Amino acid sequence: MASLKSVAIKGLKIGGGAPVRVESMLKTRLADVEGCVKECRALLKAGCELARVALPDEVLAPKLAELVKKTELPLMADIHFNHKLALAALSAGVPAIRVNPGNMSGAAGLAEVVAAAKDRGAVIRIGANGGSVGNAQLAAAGGDRGAALVVAVEEQLGALLERGFEDVIVSAKSSSVAETVRANALLAQKYPFPLHVGITEAGCGNSGIVKGAVGIGLMLAQGMGDTIRVSLTGAGAEEVETGYSILSALALRSRGWQLISCPTCGRRRIEVAALVEKLRKIIPADACSGMTIAVMGCEVNGPKEAANADLGIAGSPEGFIIFKKGAFVCRGSMETFEETVKHEIFLTKP
Q: The whole model's pTM is what?
């Protein structure tokens, strides 16, 4: 979205005007390859375009190599502490690695990693987070934790650039929305490299979704971010679905059909929540791409409030009415709901 430079991970272009990509991270331990494959399938079905996978021990490198061969999903090995893990991951065939500047040091080791990445055409993501910031970075940033995250990124970025390596994605994330937004604003102003954005350790359930959406939405709305991950304590597919919801809300990308539904009141003729669930059973999440479907509780103002919807359903005394772009199409009883909706969707083009 925002960066001038781009990189490609297994054919997936990131940055340089490419669509904002949606990422996740495998929750299954790498020792369980078949479990990882199953999770990759679920992520792909949800629309995931890139997934990180933790490689905590060299003994698991053969498992990583096996996983790379068994999934179509592009993988990025998540590396901490030891450059030998990065080398093992690259040897296993991953097209990208993520290194944390806060816990990887040693010029000789880094030189080996750069050489291996160049040889294999791999991408390196510099992933700084709150744990990457130490006293030295804080002092250099005058106590500003957002700026200190940038210092942590720059230390590693400078080392890569000195070695002639520019196939880089940069990332600075914190569990604080304000710190993360500030860090990425500084990085976006200074560097042309693709930005991966997100709020790390956002949490679970509604609070995690809201926190991630607020932070990611703020950055994307300001033109920062080429690839995103919503970090939730839950299934990876939920992260991906939330990511697409954020992009859709900002009119940056859409996947499948988009829902408009009223919050309901005492005027409603139908139970909106129940009708929405019926629709979700009738229409797969990845179907009707680009179409906006509205479910409104009553016919009094439903068609007007959802006048831009490609297809709308509003409650009526007899059952429901169908409208398109605010114009009445037909009415029906709840007994004919599924048949009528399927018919009208077939006739509707976004």
A: 0.88
